[in-house]
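One such given next:
>
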Amino acid sequence: AKGVKAVQFFTSGFGETGTEEGRKLEAEICDLARGGGLRLIGPNCMGVYSPKVGLSYAPDYPRESGPVAFICQSGGNAIYFVRYAVQRGIRFSKVVSFGNAADINESELLEYLAADSETEIIAAYIEGVKDGKRFSQALKTAAAAKPVIIMKGGCTEAGAKAVASHTGVLAGSAQIWDGLLRQSGVISVSSLEELADILVTFLYLPVPSGWRLGCIDVGGGAAVVATDKYVSCGFVLQPLPPEVRQKLRQLVSTEAGISLNNPVDLAAQFYTPAVYPVVKTLADYNGVDMLIFHLPLGIMPPFASFPEEYASAILDNAIRAQEETSKPMAVVIDQITTGASLETAITCQQKCHQVGIPVYFAIDSAAKAISRFLHYHENRARLAGCQPQS
């Protein structure tokens, strides 16, 4: 009667209850909405966060916009993910928590975001869909226009039962979902943290020209673990040729404890200005397509964790070297063992993001995210090569 065009329906107690009364109430509010010519988001949801227009369902969200859109069937996951993603350097164009999707659903949101000029990357947490055929087409259209990353909730039998009582939808077969996402060119992740990792990669990492990786580390055990993780995700860590190893040998004051293979383990030289020429040498070497620099914060014997000024100085040397080349570089900040080291990690992450370098907080996270990123771009290039010439 007031001419309102849209309603965000926060309240729960509708179709997700699984009761006849709940389903009837949900149908009634949809009929009222349609009769009044307005659109309904929800029920059982948090609604919309759109920083450009100053709309938010939480008071602490940033006011600045970004290129990522996020649609989320879960209100709780929507609240948490925005807060977590913001700490990872991600900003949003729109976030929509859509709950039971009684009216506006995941397919319509994908169709809208595929054409939205303010959105460059689409992320989603989806438990189930209302119209499989429409969703399949919407997903393919969106993925053809821009990167789409989806976390599917309710992949196990127990998880599917939890979905039914959460948002009142059918979760669907995990095998069918996997096939649909793969055929549509969508990146699939299994946790919200993995979702943030891949978004950080798209936002901050230039596309490497290949899978050959140069790794700079400290600690022999860490280098072994890193090698296993990267190789298992498809990266190639080639041994450095004699001439590169000789050049590196001339850059350090001692070879005690050092390994000049790949990964390069700098041992005690990690804490000296030698970091800069070592990183520069690897960046200049045409036998690697990208660099990964490890900054472990819990491995310095006299301290429980790196003092912030030590970590910043080491990182400054690595960043300086990377900025003087065109070689993509990522940084892994791990071994966060104290409150002080957590603060140091955040400071170092911000330093990297200011110059466009992605940061991860585990070797495994970096390996998986960058691997998916490379596969995505390889698939896009292959599909483009298959298109008929106009």
User: Anything to note?
Assistant: The first helix runs from residue 20 to 35. The two ends are 52 Å apart (CA to CA). The CA atoms of residues 237 and 356 lie 24 Å apart.
